[in-house]
Amino acid sequence: MSTREEDHYGNWAGAYALHALTPDERERYEEYLRRSEDARAEAAELGDTAALLAVDTAEPSAALRANLLDAIAVTPQLGADDAEPAPAGPAQTHAREDRVADDDAVDREELARVTALASAPEVAAPSAAGAVITPAAGSKAARRWSRPMALVAAAAAVVVIGAGIAGGTGLLTPPSEQQQAFAALEGADDLQRVETTATDGTEVTVLWSEDLASAAVESDGMPELDDDLVYQLWMIRDGGAIPAGLMDADEGFAVMDGELHDGDVIGITVEPAGGSESPTTDPILVQAT
């Protein structure tokens, strides 16, 4: 099996599990599965998870399937058992150092830009939600928005302080428990981050840390739901789905309730307001950790 095959088919597991492939694509992917033991294991795990969360399987629309596969084709994803990267050669090392230097410069420029907002006559506090960059935005923008949450938190603190001074209040709004938990997760030494796509085409980032036994979901494009519906998060293990909290589309992120176990699969469904004890709709996203 070639590296080119892995690059082409390696991110089709989610679409395969959610029946979002055409018959021809499904046939080609299953031929790939026969040649890759790792791919078979991942497809089986996500297939079992989708079955646990699924109710009546609905045939995806052509537009939904196209959005899903287009996003998968250009969005880098990490497998559950990624190998350690091969040692870099001199050229790769210099290129990586240049990218790090570029990232540091972007961070300094961005922090200075946000800090400058504090001196404006009117200052709006920034959203705590993390952003997921669309593929067309480019790798530099993706790196900028995937910087550690600590930078965003620091810039937000400067803006809020400036707003308080400008308004004569001198007040600082403390971060919420969710924001603190998300910042702690972003700062974890063993942080894993996977950019993936929900069945409606929305780009979603799943983050987790085994050291912290914590996971979160982040997206700035989740569609608004009717008042009687909510996004519900699930940790799937041992043949069952465990409720792990709700996600507000306006917030843009949610740290999951409960402790993450090794091998858990993350799922999202749309449920009645208040959430459910077990899934009542098909999953819009499943992601192995």
TrEMBL record:
GO BP field: regulation of translation
Membrane topology annotation: Single-pass membrane protein
Protein's cellular compartments: Cell membrane; Membrane
The organism's place on the tree of life at top rank: Bacteria
Keyword NAD part of the UniProt annotation: no
Keywords carried by this UniProt record: Cell membrane, Membrane, Transcription, Transcription regulation, Transmembrane, Transmembrane helix
Gene Ontology CC: plasma membrane
Every Anti-sigma K factor RskA C-terminal domain range: 152-284
A Pfam match: RskA_C
Transmembrane segments: 149-172
Region (Disordered): 79-104
GO molecular function, one term: sigma factor antagonist activity
Name used for this protein in its record: Regulator of SigK
Species of the source: Arenivirga flava
